[in-house]
Amino acid sequence: MIAETICSALSAAGLGIAAITAYRKRFLTATRIAAYSLVPIGLVMTGVVDWVADLVFNPTVWAGFGLLGLAWVLFMTTRAVERRAGGSRRERKAARAAAGREAVAPAASAPSLGPGRTTAAQPAAEAKAKAEPAASQGEDFSDIEAILKKHGI
């Protein structure tokens, strides 16, 4: 009963403001205000206000919303723990299997140590490059191709 009275008062006030706005020759704005002011009385007439009032003042409904909130918190907590733990068992098995595979070009992913420092793999590559000077130019592109293939490009 109180909700219906409040909605009716809001509609009456809105229509009064719309009339004043129309008197000031702002008809488009007055029409928009009148449309907004008719919404509360329309909700009362359709019974939505009674439904919302029953929803808000019913403790069983609030308990239901509490349970839904608790379920959401539990769901999000398990998702966060699963992400932190590294995913599901299938994902961990796939990661182990992927770690066992060799790279497409293991030498291509080795870091460059500069001209003065070498690793165990570099002397063999330098000897091969000195033996075939023409092949070393093509080798630069093969390294690039290997890197691109490694990243799936």
**Roughly what percent helix?**
over 70%
Helix count, DSSP H or I runs of 4 or more residues: 7
Tell me the series of helices and strands, N- to C-terminal: HHHHHHH
Low-confidence stretches: none
**Radius of gyration of CA atoms, rounded to a whole number:** 37 Å
**Head-to-tail CA distance between termini:** 69 Å
Structural class: mainly alpha
Shape type: elongated
Number of DSSP E strands = 0
Name the average pLDDT: 80
Work out the strand percent: under 5%
Q: What does the largest sheet look like?
A: none
What does this 3D model show about the protein?
There is one protein chain. Helix content is 78%, strand content 0%. It has helices spanning 2-23, 27-46, 48-56, 59-85, 89-100, 121-131, 133-150. Helix 6 packs across helix 7 (133-150). It is mainly α and 153 residues long. The two termini are 69 Å apart.
